[in-house]
Amino acid sequence: MAYSLKWNEKAIEDLRDLDGKTQKKIIERIKEYLPEDPVGLGKPLKGMFKGLYRYRYGSYRIIYAIDQREEAIMILRIGDRKDVYDKPGM
What we know:
Helices cover 29% and strands 31% of the residues. By secondary structure, the chain is α+β, with helices and mostly antiparallel strands.
């Protein structure tokens, strides 16, 4: 069972801040792997981010939420591991 992907506007803005080659690789990685097993591939976050997951791609982190009922993944933010959790809107 593959989950559908939904993109938050903030995640799209985050992608636009990256160079084209990195954008393409991250999008391909998300589309290819994440919909198949979002819980198994991701790591649940703690604290104020409880209920969200992160997927690692190199030094980048993809922050997302899973809606089990609708079988959908909402991509919320994308960024370098050193500052993705500090971005406004997180």
